Amino acid sequence: MTKTRFNALFAVALLLGASACGAQSSAPPVAQPAASTPPADTGEPAPPTNGLAGRAFLLDNADGYTPARGPKIRIEFSDDNISFHAGCNAHAGSYRAEDGKIDVSWPGLATTMMACIPHLDAQDAWIREFLLSKPAYQIDGNNLTLKNDSATLTFVDRVVADPDRQLVGPKWTIDALITGDAVSSIGEVKPSILFGSDGSVAVETGCNMGRGKYEVSGSQLTFGALALTRRACISEQLGNTEKHIQKVVGDGTATYRIEAARLTVQRPDGTGIRAIAE
Known about the structure:
The protein folds into two domains: 3-11 and 48-161, Lipocalin (Beta Barrel), CATH 2.40.128.270; 171-277, Beta Barrel (Lipocalin). The chain has helices spanning 3-9, 118-132, 158-161, 236-249, and strands at residues 55-63, 74-77, 81-85, 90-94, 96-98, 101-103, 109-111, 136-140, 143-147, 152-157, 171-179, 182-185, 192-195, 200-204, 209-217, 220-223, 227-228, 252-259, 262-266, 271-277. It has an eight-stranded antiparallel sheet with strand order 7-4-3-2-1-10-9-8. The protein is mostly beta strands.
């Protein structure tokens, strides 16, 4: 696997903008794979879909294995790439879905190299070996079952298990700052942003409070001027964080994406914020 391909799998930008509201029904909808451009008509029959590509799943039940406490185990598929996150490092590689089995033994899985607390490190290793064992797979609507000789894991489509939040309504706690390809975490003081249904936006930077206006068009946000109170920040770090937030949600345009409870807002120059819904 090339370095470019691996980086693409773990890019910070996380998926699509908020879904439009629709009519509710008593049964949950079956999540659909991401849309793609149809191939040119060559006269040859189209290759069969494996039901996995373009979908992400969260672990719902495990028989033969006891998951560690912490974030839900997530597994994601594209046409020929698989990635998973089990609470610490990220893992990715190529896969083939053939004869009812998932084969990721060639060329294997690459992984990031963060230090993990022992029980999450052990879970990373267990899930990795499970996927390398060529488990059988079965898709049933929103459910994915993976099974080998020792364990059966049942996953639910991420869109159903953890739906995308709406932009308006939640208080979004800012926990990371984006500068181009770099993402830096914020300390103990967590700024926040709140989008109102009246087109107003309220911001707490960790030093000051402010208000402004915004408009939404598709995945684009257009912000008006942001008016802030003028208290001095108690540290240089908080002052720099405030300036960064002002640049993102001040006068101008940005794109936004929401996946589950995660919001990413980013300016054309790459300056952005990441936040999580409370």
